[in-house]
Amino acid sequence: MNNTCFVIMPIGDQAIGGVTITEEKLREKYDYIIKNAIKKAAPSLDVIRADEEVNPGSISNDIFTKLMHSQFVIADITYPNPNVFYELGIRHAIRPGTILIREKVDFKVPFDVSHLRHIEYTQEPSGMDKLAEQLKRRFEFYAKTPEKPDNQFLELCSFTNYVPTIYGKPETGKQDFVAKLLTLFLSNPGMLQALTDKSLSKEDQQQAIFLEFAKNPDYADQLVQALVHSGLIQI
Predict the structure, then answer these.
(1) Strand (E) or helix (H) holding 207
(2) CA 187, 189, 195, 196 torsion-angle sign
(3) What is the pLDDT of residues 8-36, one digit of tens each?
(4) How many angstroms separate the CA atoms of 4 and 73, rounded?
(5) pLDDT tens across 105-129, in order?
(6) Which of 6, 10, 136, 210 could form a disulfide linkage to 66, CB 3.0–4.6 angstroms apart?
């Protein structure tokens, strides 16, 4: 999803200030202004909204996956929609690359996000082009500074060296392989002698080590297992 831009915005009817904005109007705004502006600013991006996901299964899991892995997330905070702000909070907590947009309307942005920088847009004929210009500048900024925190939570994490709880399986990597390799050599005096004998050339050392492997195939098996376990080779 490195080339995905996920748009979070209200999908159903929205009522605010005695006015109801229908689902159809919101869809038109997404199709003709927001989506077109993103594609004009960055034609290579795949733009998707939650209701465009066609994979079977839980829509919540699809949304969480998009929040975790999309290169960019654009959040329309025009309306005080709980789902939008919940999803925005999740995205802000896990990675940068989030852009807030808001239609130029009379009612105020909720206090908790009123201090965050956002792009205003209109539904005037030139509204899409102006939004595209501003989005392009933001995309270029992220391209130059991909790891820079873009919200207060990530800034605080960076400042305090706080790492959120990680549930992923730890990677053993090369360190684990080196540890297993040292154990293997230390348990075999012949290999250790060949490895530390400075009178031997590199070729002679390799030949002596291969001879030790030939004497005891179990050592070769242990070495292969260590390589596979570390992920350095795949079978």
Answers:
(1) helix 202-215
(2) positive
(3) 999 999 988 788 999 999 999 999 999 99
(4) 8
(5) 877 666 556 677 899 999 998 999 9
(6) 6
**What's the rounded Cα separation, in Å, for the pair 127 and 118?**
15
Q: According to DSSP H, which parts of 42-119 are helical?
A: 59-69, 82-94, 111-114
SS (H, E, C) 154-188: HHHHHHHCCCCCCCCCCCCHHHHHHHHHHHHHHCC
Alpha helix stretches (DSSP H) within 95-160: 111-114, 127-144, 152-160
How far, CA to CA in Å, does 56 sit from each of 3, 27, 35, 60, 64?
A: 22, 22, 24, 11, 15
pLDDT band per the 50, 70, 90 thresholds, residue 186: low
Tokens found for residue 59: 């829509």
Helix/strand/coil for 117: coil
- Secondary-structure breakdown of the chain: helix, strand, coil percentages, each rounded to the nearest 5: 55, 10, 35
